[in-house]
Amino acid sequence: MASYFDEHDCEPLGPGEQPNHFLHLARLLLDSGVAALEGQMFGEKKAPPASKEAVEQLPTYSLSGTDLGKPCPVCLLEFAPDDMLKAMPCKHRFHASCILPWLQQTNSCPVCRHELPTDDTDYEEFKRQKGRAKDREARIEQLHDSMFG
Ligand SMILES: [Zn+2]
Ligand SMILES: [Zn+2]
């Protein structure tokens, strides 16, 4: 009489053999590896300094009543009456002496990451590509909603 395994056309696991989870693991590693790579390409690009022009165009404020006593987000000291302040396009305000050196390092608001234009053409192109990818995702979602929503 034929054995169970002959009838069911499969091999019993040999001694020390494990059911094959390896493929699952490999797939998992591959996925996270790809995500890390994409992060490198799209997420982690180091932002260049803000363009000189953009920084020069930031409006300068002398202190008004509403800012008096508020802490500067960079140095955490309260704004004092004769401080010169700079306002970012996002309306966040800083000591000119705090935000100007910051913007020589990177192009974004220290509070909300609002980005100023840069002189770095590679980076500007990267931002355009990223924006386009986002647009495309949004459009695909809209399409999906209109088809299945
Ligand atoms: Zn400050
Ligand atoms: Zn901001």
TrEMBL record:
InterPro entries noted in UniProt: RING_finger_E3_ligase, Znf_RING, Znf_RING/FYVE/PHD
Superkingdom of origin: Eukaryota
Alphabetical UniProt keywords: Metal-binding, Zinc, Zinc-finger
Keyword Nucleotidyltransferase recorded: no
Record has Chloroplast as a keyword: no
Domain called RING-type: residue spans: 72-113
Name of the molecule in the record: E3 ubiquitin-protein ligase RNF181-like
High-level lineage: Eukaryota, Metazoa, Ecdysozoa, Scalidophora, Priapulida
